[in-house]
Design a protein that fits this description.
270 residues; alpha/beta; Rossmann fold; 8 strands; 17% strand
């Protein structure tokens, strides 16, 4: 009973402070302003969605309009839940999704590569805690009256690998989308994935190399997992979330990846 009361209290607090994001889907030739470095002040609110960890504070943003919506969980990069991820969460709300940006670092963020890596190592040393965190995020979203009951997890870099792990080990959710991130190439392990997987990778990535991605796709096929995985040849790791780092190279592939992602979420969550 206490858990039910706590969940209701969290939902009421979230509803009280999250300003709805106007419905404004991107045009066919546009990407979210957030990934161009032109995002506006976030409209959502901080929420405690993981009762086992009071320091964990996610970011909830909701779309304007009545009715039920699909939901997405955004999983941050190695530096933690920062402003750009909040802005991207608002972009998903503008597309009509309830978005919860998860916090896997218990309210902390890194400021240097060394700090980031320390946080990565700390959390990856306890993968069950990561899964418990994201399971709680799914429970939080599915308990909301404005959520249809369908949830997808989306992650970048560190978060991309976490999204894949969550797709294999988490409670039932309906979608997994990964941008870069650690891979699994064991077909028997991948048989634990029970929904289509979306993947975007970079041809010039020195961490997750194209050959590794191709082996991953072969393993997905061997496991019978439907997938939409694409390698964009002339871009580097991180190209999608930070198009503004090299707009000339990144804009066109980022647009294609975004349109693929929109189509994936439409068929997965609606």
């Amino acid at each position: 009973m206490r858990g039910v009361i706590l969940t209701c209290a969290l939902l009421m607090a979230a509803a009280a402070f999250a300003e709805p994001v106007p419905f404004a889907p991107t045009a066919a030739d546009a990407v979210p302003a957030a990934i161009l470095g032109k995002g506006s002040t976030p409209l959502g609110t901080a929420v405690g969605y993981f009762p086992a960890s009071p320091k964990t504070k996610g970011y909830l943003t909701i779309p304007a309009g009545s009715g039920k919506h699909g939901a997405v969980i955004l999983i941050h990069e190695w530096d933690g839940l920062g402003e750009r991820v909040r802005q991207v969460a608002d972009a998903f709300a503008a597309e009509g999704y309830v978005a919860l940006a998860a916090d896997l670092y218990s309210g902390r963020t890194g400021g240097t590569p060394e700090q980031n890596m320390a946080l990565v190592k700390e959390t990856l040393a306890d993968p069950k805690q990561i899964i418990a965190n994201l399971d709680a995020a799914v429970k939080f979203l599915k308990a909301r009256k404005d959520v249809s009951g369908k949830v997808a997890a989306i992650g970048w870099c560190y978060g991309g690998g976490v999204a894949l792990s969550f797709g294999l080990d988490g409670v039932n959710h309906e979608g997994t989308a990964m941008f870069y991130g650690r891979l699994v190439d064991d077909p028997e392990r991948l048989k634990h994935m029970h929904h289509e997987l979306y993947g975007t990778f970079a041809g010039l990535d020195q961490t997750i190399k194209p050959d590794e991605v191709r082996h991953f796709v072969d393993a997905l096929r061997g496991a019978g997992v439907e997938n939409d995985v694409h390698i964009y040849d002339d871009v580097k790791h991180g190209f999608w979330l930070y198009v503004d780092r090299d707009p000339k190279a990144n804009t066109a592939p980022a647009l294609d990846a975004w349109q693929r992602l929109k189509a994936y979420l439409a068929r997965t969550l609606k």
